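Give me the fold.
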Amino acid sequence: MTRVRLGHYAWGVLVWNVLVALWGAYVRATGSGAGCGSHWPTCNGEIIPRSPQVETLIEFAHRTTSGLAFLSVLLLFLLALRILPKGHPARLGAGLSFLFMVTESLVGASLVLFGWTAHNVSAERAVVQMVHLANTYFLLASLTLTAWWASGGAPLRLRGQGAVGAALLLGLLALLFLGMSGAVTALGDLLFPVRNTLEALERSLTPGEHFLVRLRVLHPLIAVSVGLYVVFAGYLVAHLRPSAHTQRFANGLAYLYGAQLLAGLVNVWLKAPVWMQIVHLFLAYAVWLIFVLLAAAALARGARRVELGDGAEAKAVHRGTGGATWKDYLALTKPRVISLLLFTTLFAMLIAARGWPGTGLFLAVALGGYMMAGAANAINMVVDRDIDARMRRTAKRPMATQRISSRDALLFALALALLSYLLLWWGANLLSATLALMGLIWYVLVYTLYLKRRTWQNIVIGGAAGAFPPLVGWAAVTGDLNLFAWYLFALIFFWTPVHFWALALMIQDDYRAVGVPMLPVVLGERVTVMQIALYAVLTALISLMPLVLGELGLFYLLFSLALNALLILKSLALYRQPERRTAVSLYKYSMLYLALLFVAMAVDRVL
């Protein structure tokens, strides 16, 4: 057999093992795991069972196909040792594949021998179910890498990968955690079926219910959080390690994860039928394997590193000049920018609680919210370091002055984001942590990486990232999002163009010099001031919606009328005289406007 044929065989072994794993899921979902009793490797004490029962046939078919999978992996390992030279990475991959195939067989045997099948509801079964899922992931990852390397993929270079390596490792761990939570959720669906989604939610929130029931509600939020991060990490890695493979895998990852989330929703809606569970699991395997291939392509020896560049200046940015202080790392988080975002987060908590939400919760959300926003700003500085160095307003930022390397800045941002997520989950709830992560992803992926340098609509669409903080604060207090919470989101969404385009008018020469298509640069000052006036009117109208809904009263009405009148007057003044003086006035007032509007809502809710 040639190396080319070995590569083809390795891909075939991977496909076969995916099918066997899916059949194993079918065995679990149908409750057929006890079809051969507590006997292993025999089936009910027989080598070939004579029982006509469907459960026995299903379980025996799984054992037969698993045995063939074991032999296929063993043959792959032997062929790799024979055909490939010493030191070839595919030999290592094949060896790991065989190792995880052995452990896969042992875990499967333990499920049967200890009776952790059918309708067993013990905690031990749940733990072993997670171990089984993790081992399957490791087996499929090893087979994927073996096939990739046997087909000509370059070996890995693990040292010196910095933030890219950390981002990929965190993504792999997140997907593994998600898969394990999915395994437990699927077990709960089998053992504790429900009639509808509402019943599932009610039972999962009921104290005293079985832990498998109570864990069910967490999986969708974990899936959204992990999906957001994985897609973000995929595109960030493709940006920092650009190649045809990384771009293709990053795009495939985004599409597949979208399909998986949709399948998850359908699975919940249909009350987890067996066929839908299999489709959902297949997409989970596909996402995992695409991410493994993305990591293999990005960490390969000789992979292009965009942050290294070709010149001395680019290398200095990557390495940094050294001597960075805590003040430089604090500056990476953009404290002044965060202050207003954090203000809306905390006052949304006061609005939701109709008073003080509790000191512990308040401090946890304050710190967690700052860290998540700071992580987003740090990543933004890394991506925009080239244009920041050429703009007067941003020329003294630590990335522009090269005091901090891009690697250290990204590691700092990833650490902040992870700690923030864990703190918000622990101190508040999983929904608030997920929403904070969604804000980071929107700011970095949608605004910074995709829209900012492509269209003048960047701030209209990308500015939605700044509207997530009040959702975080509201969810931290209530655990859900009602219509009022989404009103706060809409208020900031329509306020953002007024605020930012006033700033863009002030520094349009900087944007023009670096080629960023902000509205004044693309369509001119007259169109910009007209858009500002339009969005000011829309903001004023939206600010009155809670009055129509009956959520706020007379105090807010009087206060908001005064604030909105001044906002519109200043926007009209800018329209009549589009000068720096009037732009500065509107820019400064817009910040005061939003802050006072949230204060008025909080006070009115208390009164």
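Residues 182 and 219 are 6 Å apart (CA to CA).
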